[in-house]
């Protein structure tokens, strides 16, 4: 049997464990478990760290059972990699091994007032005040402000810091620490791609920055050690693997997808459609500063002695999450797959435009005060049109970040490589090609984040069963979607979308306001509450 490499893919909505053939890149077996999210208050999004780890263990166990059913010896798994939802923030007690609060998810908005305060005290009220070191604007999106909230508001976190028991990490750090022994000698580390999303990391020196830590008043002793994205971090302590496997890779999910799409050359790009939507373009070994609202991030560092590679990134908060909202909050669809049928039945949004700014707007605007809005409703509008408008919204948001990326690079993309769960929606892929006016190319094996994690794990020094040299990269089959509408129609629809975006701006502030009863509403601008009365009769949307 040829060597196998496994990958833990811990995303916002689910956890997967996947096993690949290191010679052919063939997916041998996998298992997936959904993750629950909680919304304690408007704008707050949390996940249970223990549930995250339980899902990891369950996926590992079920996948290994499937391998045994296939008569495949799990001792052929030579290494395990980790790829993860980025920015999601945890603090735990290194003595007890217990989380001190739920994980604050990357799209959580509770820190908006903190962000406004930081921007107000920055010279010229410039949200890019720290960008020269971090590559990032001051935003609710990144880990430093979430950690600051935990330090300010959770007594258990404060006490653990004072008693030198606290450990901070993003999801990758939590998983690696738990799998390598936890409180019994677990390895507390992260990689450069995840560290670069915290606002505490200098992307030029590739180290935690004392000045940034002082700015956010974060004690440096709680931070994980920063490692490369491809090296042996430690050995797994798990009953699942009778034959011990090493953990030899860590990459944020979008960086892993860049590797999985084999975008190793400067100028190559990919767009991932998951809970959010993330377009990354490889800029080589030198960071490029965006002038059009994109992020500068560390893409990967494939070995201790290898140079770091950087990327320009356009981040969209709500992509697949809009489908989940239509299903769970509004009951407009019964399953995520149903949205394609509804949208296809309409064939058009009939002038309806949906801006799903549930967590404000990310790139290229970085406007946390924006909120979701639906424009252009008439008595003719039904749920099919809303489904179509939701899919179009994902495509329009991608168009905005692609335009910004083309302006920054000066070299327009001639086609877009895509991946992620939403790419199984063929209508969405065709809409994307139509709105971008360039072909969209989707690999037939869409688990590219996990593939990228496996590739980097297998290539690590001491493992070396996966060759990443250009002439040894695996061939992955794909399908291509060409634009089917003329550019004038595409531009007209995009212009209407941009008009809708402006209507969504400056909707929410942290300043107190009163309703007609003199009460201060906490959620008066949440899209769910804004349009609930419109949708409360299911008869209306079924007509």
TrEMBL record:
Residues 270-460 form the Carbohydrate kinase FGGY C-terminal domain. Keywords: ATP-binding, Cytoplasm, Glycerol metabolism, Kinase, Membrane, Mitochondrion, Mitochondrion outer membrane, Nucleotide-binding, Transferase. Pfam families: FGGY_C, FGGY_N. Pathway: Polyol metabolism; glycerol degradation via glycerol kinase pathway; sn-glycerol 3-phosphate from glycerol: step 1/1. PROSITE patterns: FGGY_KINASES_1 (PS00933), FGGY_KINASES_2 (PS00445). Residues 5-260 form the Carbohydrate kinase FGGY N-terminal domain. It is found in: Cytoplasm; Mitochondrion outer membrane. It comes from the Eukaryota. Its EC number is 2.7.1.30. One of its GO terms (molecular function) is ATP binding. GO terms for biological process: glycerol catabolic process; glycerol-3-phosphate biosynthetic process; triglyceride metabolic process. InterPro entries: ATPase_NBD (IPR043129), Carb_kinase_FGGY (IPR000577), Carb_kinase_FGGY_CS (IPR018483), FGGY_C (IPR018485), FGGY_N (IPR018484), GK1-3_metazoan-type (IPR042018), Glycerol_kin (IPR005999). It is an enzyme of class 2 (transferase). GO terms for cellular component: mitochondrial outer membrane. PANTHER family: GLYCEROL KINASE, SUGAR KINASE. Belongs to the FGGY kinase family. This is glycerol kinase. It comes from Anabas testudineus (Climbing perch).
